[in-house]
């Protein structure tokens, strides 16, 4: 056996010598063809089969296909190699492995390969061998030549030869058989030998590991071009048949069978084998929430990344985007740059794109699915790495929310230019197919199937193309209950998120976005490029809702005007004009955000307004910021210095605010007029629509910097230097600092801040810090709320899981402010308009117009709430305040004023936790007997009294007794002490078994109320009645009272009869005397 094997193994060596000799004599092409045919005949030597018969006798009998092979044609050895994965016999396995390594290229020609591919080998001139120094033993050139021909045909390259179907299958089968060990792909092995040693020295051969390692280093600068070319050819074969990748086929074998990814009888087998079909089928399973093995998902991710890195692996891209690549994207093939260049062309940024190329790009994006994991897109990953590390570091690496986070930070100071471009290029295609946003798909797939008749993730419908699904979802997002068939809450939130991101993408005017959000989703959801939304809204002008129609009409009117060239007003001081120095300092901002204004030479006012609006963009540098702020400070000296404001409001100023010159005074005058007309429900606003719109811009700009409100700034300058000296002026930070230190302000500044807060509470849009910090939460929760109701909406959604912590903290600050004075709570003020003077007039008599009442009026109303004497509307508002302050003691100003020291002494841990669960209040109640300060004790007693009226006001008790309320008091409506009385009766009833915690808490409350009754006697009959009803001796007290009443009744009857008898005797006596 050994001798035979030795002869067999040395046959190629003799051939190599012959080849070398031929090369020395410079053989012509025909000689190479003869030489190749000679080698083919030589390798049919029956010695190969005789050795195989002897060594693999057992294996041949087990493998029926090999036992049936005809001897003498070389088929037996090829059959054993074909089934080498199933060979268990050690000697046979060793022999076949050695044979495969040595004569693999020749074997492929023996295995029926020559019969099936003879014509194609001759047509493509593949029947010769390379005779390079390193390749004298390789006949892999033949296979490599055929593989390249197969790729050229798939890409429909000019002059490509059509390979016969049988030969195609043989080529792919050979590639598949060499997929586990890169040594078996002789051409790639010799092309990449040195690269393997350089990059994959420690990678063991087998199971496709070396292939994967080389793929990962394909775009390294040090990799040889010949190896890169061989790797690309193999990757293209994998794209045509996933089985050419050993690791992918092995890892996903069970999942493919499980999800029937190769059982579609309606498509040709060749399509089922394509990598794209495998990815789409398994991605569909993942998106449907099915379980795909982690090993398979890891392999899928590698190949999805591969598709995004090298466009040439997609034959459709190569075929349909050839002109775009040559015209715009040549030389950028590495690391996904060509693909992103094509995406940029697809966005329309570099001219028109062929529709077939556009479709090929869209298909590739769906196959690679980078929306599910941004790391798949290498170009995006590298460009956005710094942004992700700073702006999105709180999100898990690879989470689909990363893309959403990047979109939220678009055009912010954290975004870098390269990331912005890559993000918008990818987002353009994701926006055109709702399925490519995995979060939207996961939250809305049920709604889409129910309302929009969608199919599976990788299926499409002509009746409902992918781009129309989002429009369908949006149409159902804002339907009323009467209209029916609405979206689920989770889906609605995602639809809103997409709308916000699209608005950011195209740099929509915020006012346009706020007023036209509904119409943008309804009519323009597929219009995502700059300027398209406004054009779309103009096209549908008659179909828009009234608010949107108004703002679009105004913008259209402004567009139709021919703005004047740069104007110099005769009354403007010289330094108002934008100097060349300032222009140079502001060049980055102008180029990025104001280039249209600058290019069109629009007047100075327009350009400066643009700079003011973009004052906090990342391109704004310190010199430009100082110059713009200086210009704003000059503007406030005279409203005429503000060109747009003067143009919009000149007639209104002459009519309503004559003789007022300072801009800030004019703004106050006009805004007061608008506010009064609104509060009085005037039929017609006295300030024109155009002026109101510009007035809003001026008010918001003024609220951004305290220096733009001179009277406020002058009043608080001393306090700013004392309390806020290290706080920057921009973003209303100084104003917020003064609010937080309100108790330490001088009287004059305190009065101004109070007035400012009163205005902001009526119109929260003027609260710059609130609107800035809660900008995204307002978009999420309050898109349908009017501007004046924004704070109320945020308060209602404060405890939502989706609420941003910083915004929640800001809402709490505003609630604390509101509770210091009823005048800072417009909703409460309106609801309790009649109750406040009726019950709290003594407090009002002491009040001043410009300082807080420190919650005294609200405390007064709380007590009347406990007495059940408030009007229904006022009662509803006080109940909300009671519930909120019961969870967070900071919302009760009187409690905080009187109990600060006691809280520090008795409840330091509860106060430090700041959990807003009512633990501080509970601690004070439990330690009532330990409280030394009378003022604090009184406030705690008031809390106990309030809790009698409504159990919701006592969160700890309500939580403890929630189950008992449900079982014992379900039929009793809350409020007016009804549920509390129900629980007390249940506590007294021995037949009822309350929860231990509830029973304990109730007993604690009874003890507290008993103490409270001793310390603070009842104020009136209603209070006395409430104390009796909640007393543990209620039955005894009622019995005594009843006995007393009965006794009085009996005494009355007896006294009445006695008095009547005496009166009758006196009458009789008087009559007798008269007769006498």
TrEMBL record:
Membrane-spanning ranges: 1036-1056
Secretion signal span: none
GO CC annotations on file: Golgi membrane
Highest rank taxon of the organism: Eukaryota
Location within or outside the cell: Golgi outpost; Membrane
A GO molecular-function annotation: fibroblast growth factor binding
Per-repeat ranges for Cys-rich GLG: 162-222, 291-350, 352-414, 486-545, 619-678, 686-743, 744-802, 869-932
Keyword ATP-binding: no
Pfam family, one: Cys_rich_FGFR
Claim: Flavoprotein is one of the keywords in the record: no
InterPro entries: Cys-rich_GLG1_repeat (IPR001893), Cys-rich_GLG1_repeat_euk (IPR017873), GLG1 (IPR039728)
Coiled coil spans: 527-561
Sorted UniProt keywords: Coiled coil, Glycoprotein, Membrane, Repeat, Sialic acid, Signal, Transmembrane, Transmembrane helix
Membrane topology of the entry: Single-pass type I membrane protein
The protein's name: Golgi apparatus protein 1
């Amino acid at each position: 056996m050994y001798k035979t094997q030795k002869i067999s193994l040395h046959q190629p060596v003799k051939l190599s010598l012959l080849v070398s000799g031929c090369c020395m004599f410079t053989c012509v092409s025909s000689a190479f063809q003869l030489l190749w045919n000679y080698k083919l005949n030589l390798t049919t030597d029956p010695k190969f089969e005789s050795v195989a018969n002897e060594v693999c006798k057992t294996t041949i009998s087990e493998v029926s296909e090999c036992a049936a092979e005809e001897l003498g044609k070389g088929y037996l050895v090829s059959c054993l190699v074909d089934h080498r994965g199933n060979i268990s016999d050690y000697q046979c396995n060793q022999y076949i492995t050695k044979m495969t390594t040595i004569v693999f290229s020749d074997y492929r020609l023996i295995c029926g390969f020559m019969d099936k591919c003879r014509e194609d080998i001759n047509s493509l001139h593949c029947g010769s061998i390379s005779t390079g120094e390193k390749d004298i033993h390789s006949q892999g050139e033949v296979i490599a030549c055929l593989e390249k021909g197969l790729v050229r045909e798939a890409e429909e390259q000019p002059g490509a030869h059509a390979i016969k179907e049988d030969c195609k299958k043989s080529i792919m089968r050979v590639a598949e058989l060499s997929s586990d060990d890169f040594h078996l792909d002789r051409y790639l092995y010799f092309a990449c030998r040195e690269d393997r040693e350089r990059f994959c020295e420690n990678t063991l051969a087998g199971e496709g590991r070396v292939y994967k390692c080389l793929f990962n280093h394909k775009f390294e600068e040090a990799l040889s071009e010949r190896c890169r070319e061989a790797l690309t050819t193999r990757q293209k074969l994998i794209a045509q048949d996933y089985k050419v990748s050993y690791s992918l086929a092995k890892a996903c074998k069970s999942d493919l069978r499980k999800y029937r990814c190769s059982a579609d009888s309606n498509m040709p087998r060749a399509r089922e084998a394509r990598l794209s079909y495998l990815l789409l089928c398994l991605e569909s399973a993942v998106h449907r929430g099915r379980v795909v093995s982690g090993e398979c998902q890891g392999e899928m991710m590698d190949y999805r990344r591969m598709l995004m890195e090298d466009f040439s692996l997609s034959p459709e891209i190569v075929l349909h985007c050839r002109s775009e690549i040559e015209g715009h994207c040549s030389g950028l093939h590495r690391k996904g740059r060509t693909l992103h260049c094509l995406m940029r062309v697809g966005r329309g940024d570099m001219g028109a794109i062929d529709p077939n190329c556009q479709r090929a790009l869209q298909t590739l994006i769906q196959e690679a699915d980078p929306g599910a994991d941004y790391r798949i897109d290498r170009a995006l990953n590298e460009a956005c790495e710094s942004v992700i590390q700073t702006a999105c570091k709180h999100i898990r690496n690879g989470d689909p929310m990363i893309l959403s986070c990047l979109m939220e930070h678009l055009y912010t100071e954290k975004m870098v230019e390269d990331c912005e471009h890559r993000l918008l290029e990818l987002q353009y295609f994701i926006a055109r197919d709702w399925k490519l946003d995995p979060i939207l798909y996961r939250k809305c797939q049920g709604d889409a199937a129910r309302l929009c008749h969608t199919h599976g993730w990788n299926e499409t419908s002509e009746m409902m193309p992918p781009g129309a699904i989002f429009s369908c979802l949006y149409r159902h997002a804002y339907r009323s209950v009467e209209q029916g068939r609405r979206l689920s809450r989770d889906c609605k939130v995602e639809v809103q998120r997409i709308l916000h991101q699209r608005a950011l993408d195209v740099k929509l005017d915020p006012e346009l976005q706020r007023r036209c959000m509904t119409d943008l989703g309804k009519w323009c959801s597929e219009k995502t490029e700059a300027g398209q939304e406004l054009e779309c809204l103009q096209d549908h002008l008659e179909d828009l809702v009234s608010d949107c129609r108004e703002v679009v009409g105004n913008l259209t009117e402004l567009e139709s005007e021919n703005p004047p060239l740069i104007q110099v007003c005769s009354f403007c001081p010289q330094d108002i004009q934008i100097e060349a120095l300032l222009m140079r300092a502001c060049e980055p901002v102008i180029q990025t955000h104001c280039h249209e204004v600058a290019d069109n030479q629009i007047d100075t006012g327009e350009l400066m307004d643009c700079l003011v609006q973009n004052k906090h963009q990342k391109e704004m540098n310190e010199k430009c910021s100082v110059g713009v702020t200086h210009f704003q400070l000059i503007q406030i000296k005279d409203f005429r210095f503000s060109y747009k404001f003067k143009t919009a409001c000149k007639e209104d100023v002459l009519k309503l605010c004559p003789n007022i010159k300072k801009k800030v005074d004019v703004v106050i005058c006009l805004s007061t007029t608008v506010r009064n007309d609104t509060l009085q429900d005037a039929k017609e606003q006295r300030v024109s629509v155009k002026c109101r719109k510009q007035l809003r811009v001026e008010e918001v700009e003024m609220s951004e910097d305290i220096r733009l409100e001179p009277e406020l700034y002058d009043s608080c300058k001393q306090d700013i230097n004392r309390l806020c000296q290290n706080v920057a002026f921009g973003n209303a930070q100084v104003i917020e600092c003064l609010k937080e230190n309100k108790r330490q302000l001088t009287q004059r500044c305190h009065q101004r801040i109070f007035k400012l807060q009163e205005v902001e509470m009526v119109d929260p849009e003027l609260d710059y810090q609130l609107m800035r910090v809660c900008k995204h939460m307002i978009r999420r929760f309050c898109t349908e709320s009017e501007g004046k109701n924004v704070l109320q909406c945020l308060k209602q959604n404060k405890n939502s899981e989706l609420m941003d912590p910083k915004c929640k903290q800001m809402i709490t600050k505003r609630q604390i402010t509101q509770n210091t004075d009823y005048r800072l709570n417009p909703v409460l003020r309106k609801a309790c308009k009649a109750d406040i003077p009726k019950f709290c007039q003594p407090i009002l008599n002491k009040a001043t117009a410009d300082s807080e009442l420190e919650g005294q009026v609200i405390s007064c109303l709380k007590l009347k709430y406990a007495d059940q004497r408030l009007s229904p509307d006022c009662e509803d508002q006080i109940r909300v305040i009671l519930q909120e302050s019961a969870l967070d003691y900071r919302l009760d100003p009187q409690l905080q004023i009187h109990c600060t020291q006691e809280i520090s002494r008795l409840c330091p841990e509860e106060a430090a936790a700041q959990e807003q669960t009512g633990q501080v209040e509970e601690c004070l109640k439990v330690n009532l007997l330990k409280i030394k300060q009378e003022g604090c004790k009184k406030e705690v007693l008031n809390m106990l009294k309030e809790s009698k009226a409504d159990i919701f006001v006592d969160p700890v008790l309500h939580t403890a007794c929630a189950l008992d309320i449900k079982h014992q008091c379900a039929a009793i409506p809350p409020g007016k002490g009804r549920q509390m009385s129900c629980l007390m009766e249940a506590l007294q009833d021995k037949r009822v078994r309350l929860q231990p915690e509830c029973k304990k808490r109730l007993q604690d409350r009874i003890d507290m109320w008993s103490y409270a009754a001793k310390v603070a006697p009842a104020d009136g009959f209603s209070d006395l009645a409430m104390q009796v009803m909640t007393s543990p001796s209620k039955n005894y007290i009622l019995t005594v009272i009843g006995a007393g009443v009965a006794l009085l009744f009996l005494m009355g009857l007896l006294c009445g009869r006695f008095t009547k008898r005496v009166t009758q005797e006196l009458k009789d006596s008087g009559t007798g005397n008269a007769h006498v």
